[in-house]
Write a structure and sequence with these properties.
homodimer; alpha/beta; Alkaline Phosphatase, subunit A; 2 domains; five-stranded antiparallel sheet; 13 strands; 32% helix; 19% strand; globular
């Protein structure tokens, strides 16, 4: 039986209509005994006016009780069922530093760490070394390490103690075990092949790590721990799947990276939502679909900082009328998952959304928050179905069946 | 594609948190032109307080319009999709009399019946003979019947005219046809093999029935009708699937049997909810997950006895604060299906549930009944998804996707 999501590529039609999706990362919250959610408490006159002008609902991102990572949450909002499609940790990490992973590349997440004189892990994060120190050590390794033509090495600073390692070459395999023991007081694990075809790759990694041990000798961060070996997974682009020319604007490389993996044209990273809206405005004529990503709501939720999450929501509220003024055929505002500040992390709770446009319809909801949205005209849906609703409202899906 | 439910075993994580599930059998009801539901009319100050302190919702047990049996209803509440997993009628019957069915055993449901002098069925229930008479006749058959080593016979009284037959031996097959013609005035059907490998088993059953005819000659209940030949179906345990050490308390052997089939440790059957709560209290330190089953709500509904169902609900209300006082990380209260007394039987109607705990969240619901729960924060879910929500709220599910 075909899954509903697979209908979209079949039914997608060209149009001149425009769709804007605004993602406030980790938008969803929960009421506790003590306090309403951040979105309930935030002063959002503009968002409330949009809720009144359109229809609201809530979406479960993956499935009831399932807490999504950022990759899964975004895939769902982009209409790619996260139970079918996977970005992979390597691809996400590469996206996170803006590295253009190619088919066949093998990527892994890197922690700079400190080993004691017996070779046991003393600190898995090398005292959370500075980003500058991380950059210096990456350059040192790249200058001195020689893999003898078996693979081309990239090592790119992420932030603090984290970096991305990429091997590029022929016949590489991501089936290599983590070397990060996830514990202190024990030595790093040897990289080993998890499948026969990965024996060569495991040997390259072992040689690399042995050289790194010599190159970093005497440094406080004197070794690397590797985990999450992965490769680029093929995923159909927005253009293939939806016939949409898509544009992405975000403040963090990872979200731009996800957009790029789906074939969107991305703007340079910006630091405020205000600037993202400006990028949208200046590119409005050139694209069909626009994705704006606001990170601060999630960061504040992860920090357990209720007031900062409220402020991050209000920051969007203050700019949102500029987007509405462009009069896109469909404007949808939501989050990629909940990050309730009382929980200090991602959660499984349903996320409110609002959508407006000529063909969307209007419900009685006049406030944008969890409790009002639950009563909205869209009811409770799965996040992966939002994209079809947006395309339908944009007149971009033809009739199903005779 | 993995179904959402299959994610749970992948994402399950160990924790010291505790989960309590209270099942009021057949809890769900319906408002009619004449009267509200039993749960609406019951005086439930404690349940209402819990609803106010947590979040509510309703669940459809299997699928819209589908009336579940007890096995399917419980599997769903335990997070086993009833469209994927099956307990089997034989296993359920065995559970019902507390018989520990082993792999390879073949079980069937038994009716004592009365045949006339021509060998036609006169009464399919032998005048609903007494449980004591049933026990006497089972003992008589077991004493005199000899299957010559081809199979070991068990015959265990259930109640009234009903019993359980189990054959234990090598190479037995459940692919044997019913002998119960479901009609009077015709002879019982011959047991026949429904698959080649069942020829031996069918012959054993035919021999058994021929001996039973002689052994019961002259009795008022002078023969057995067999149906629902079945064997134990493998089903993953709670421990395997959820990493939970589970404890079950119930008043009826069948519900303890279901709990046992899933690997739960079960308490001796008790007659009141009060005693089940005491069993929970005294075992609270030893387990992670607790299942309490209250039967009277269903029995009253099946009898069409509105007031008794109200009383059965109020019986739980009077004890429930003892459970809340244990402060489990997650407390969920619901039913395994609806048994509206105006319908005098199980029904397909959605069943209200409430859940509370630190990570659950709070909604505006302040009454535990069908109409309030429909407005609750969980919305309308499938029963099979309740388990993931409980585990998530107990901090026992890791993040999905990168």
């Amino acid at each position: 039986m075909p899954e509903p999501a697979d209908l979209i590529p079949e039914l997608a039609a060209l149009s001149t209509s425009k769709i804007v999706l605004v993602v406030m990362d980790g938008l969803g919250g929960v009421r506790t005994q003590d306090r309403a959610s951040e979105l309930s408490e935030a002063k959002t006159p503009s968002l409330d006016a949009l809720a009144a002008a359109g229809m609201s609902g809530v979406h479960t991102v993956v499935a009831p009780g399932i807490t999504p990572g950022s990759g899964a949450g975004h895939l769902a909002l982009f209409g790619y069922d996260p139970l079918v499609f996977e970005l992979g940790r390597g691809a996400l990490s590469a996206a996170g530093v803006g590295f253009a992973l190619k088919a066949g590349d093998v990527a892994a997440r890197v922690n700079f760490c400190t080993l004691d004189s017996s070779g046991n892990v003393l600190d898995r994060r090398a005292g959370r070394l500075s980003t500058e120190e991380n950059q210096r050590l990456c350059a040192k390794i790249l200058a001195e390490c020689d893999l003898g033509g078996r693979a081309e090495l990239s090592l790119q600073t992420e932030r603090d103690h984290r970096a991305l390692l990429v091997l590029r070459g022929d016949n590489l395999s991501p089936q290599v075990s983590d070397t990060d023991p996830q514990l202190v007081g024990v030595p790093p694990r040897e990289p080993s092949a998890l499948a026969e075809e990965a024996a060569g790759t495991a040997a390259v990694v072992a040689d690399l790590l042995s050289q790194v041990g010599r190159i970093l000798a005497g440094e406080s961060a004197n070794h690397l721990l590797l985990r999450g070996f992965d490769t680029l997974r093929p995923i159909p682009s927005f253009k293939q799947r939806y016939l949409l020319d898509a544009f992405g604007a975000a403040g963090y490389p990872m979200y731009l990276g996800i957009a790029r993996l789906l074939g969107m044209t991305v703007a340079p990273a910006t630091s405020t939502f205000d600037e993202q809206v400006a990028q949208l405005e200046s590119n409005y004529d050139g694209f069909d679909y626009f994705y704006l990503h606001h990170k601060k709501t999630d960061s504040a939720g992860e920090d357990g900082d209720f007031d900062s999450k409220v402020a991050a929501i209000e920051e969007v509220d203050q700019q949102i009328s500029r987007i509405a003024d462009l009069a896109p055929d469909v404007l949808c505002i939501t989050g990629d998952h909940a990050t309730p500040s009382p929980l200090r992390g991602h959660s499984w709770h349903p996320v409110p959304f609002l959508m407006l446009g000529q063909r969307v319809g209007v419900d009685a909801t006049a406030k944008f928050d969890e409790e009002s949205s639950r009563q909205g005209g869209f009811g409770h849906i799965l996040a992966k179905d939002l994209m079809a609703l947006m395309m339908a409202a944009a007149g971009r899906l033809t009739k199903f069946g005779a």
